[in-house]
Amino acid sequence: MAAPHRADHVGSLLRPAEVLAAHKQFENGDLSVEQLREFEDRAILQAIKLQREVGLDVVSDGEYRRQIWSGDFIDAVDGYVDGPEPIHFDWRLADEAAAPG
Predict the structure, then answer these.
(1) Which of 12, 41, 96, 99 could lock onto 92 through a cystine, CB 3.0 to 4.6 A?
(2) pTM given for the model
(3) Exposure of 94 by Cβ count < 10 A (0-12 exposed, 13-18 middle, 19+ buried)?
(4) What does the CA dihedral 4, 8, 12, 13 come to, rounded to 10 degrees?
C-alpha cells in the first residue's frame, strides 16, 4: 500500500554551529574561502547522510553555502532596484532569544 502522504525537502536546513562559526571567522578575515568550503563540505555531507538515513528520496545540500535566501535572485534579474524593507524582521538564533537586550 502506498503511503497516504508524500513530502520532499527543498530549501534550507538549520546550519550547524560549526558552519555558523566558520562563516563568522570568514567574515572577520580569519578563514580563507578554501577553509570555509571545508567546513561547509563536511556539514553538507553530514546533512545528505542524515536525509538518506531517514529515507528521503530527494536530498538537499541544506543551502549551507548561501548567505541569503534571495541572493541569487538579485543577480539573475535585470532591472532590479533595491528598496526599503516593507517589514523588518529581527532574526535571532534560539540561544540568542533568551539573552537580554
Answers:
(1) 96
(2) 0.65
(3) exposed
(4) 60
